[in-house]
Amino acid sequence: MKKKILVADDDPAIRETLALNLTAENYVVLPAANGEEVLQIAASTPIDLVLLDLNMPVKNGWDTFERLTFEHPLLPVIIVTGRPNQLFPALAGGAGALMEKPLDLPKLIHVIADLISEPVESRLARLAGKPADFHYQPTPGKSAFALNQEPAPV
Fold first, then answer.
1. Which of 21, 71, 24 is CA-nearest to residue 51?
2. CA distance 72 to 64
3. Mean pLDDT throughout 14-20?
4. pLDDT tens digits, residue range 116-128?
5. Which spans in the chain are helix H?
């Protein structure tokens, strides 16, 4: 069965581009233009992952993220934003990844696959602020890295 990805962005061109690329990767895409739509879709349809923009009308991304993770704690969320300085809020909030715009689509597709197949224990650990993998794709020009919050061996 195809995995369902909820793509939330107020920009129709971004939603359409992501939908085309993710559909080509054999995902079912459910688009949302604002945070209220995200919450309505998540409440009525089983989904496997959310791509969530922060700058949206009606209900902003962080308010949507908070309610979404409260109501669906096992649902992986990738924060997608052009907003600077969101790394630490994303880490503290328990997001699975932070991808800064413009998006690197091959990297995004890889992160989606990782998070969809991630064990439930890892998701719960991340939400509880415990060591867990976190993916970060900065704006081009910054250094890209994936954070692993596990302590280094001594």
1. 21
2. 12
3. 95
4. 999 988 888 888 8
5. 12-24, 35-44, 61-71, 87-93, 105-117, 120-127
pLDDT at 144: 43
What amino acid is encoded at 29 in this protein?
V
Name the DSSP class of 72. -
Tokens standing for 24? Answer: 């080509």
Tokens of 36: 């209220």
Superfamily of domain 4-148: Response regulator (3.40.50.2300)
End-to-end CA distance of the chain: 43
pTM, two decimals, is 0.87
Q: Could you give the CA distance from residue 125 to residue 129 in angstroms, rounded to a whole number?
A: 6
Residue 152 — pLDDT band, cuts 50, 70, 90? Answer: very low
- SS3 label, residue 73: coil
> Could you tell me which of 20, 24, 80, 83 has the C-alpha nearest to residue 49?
80
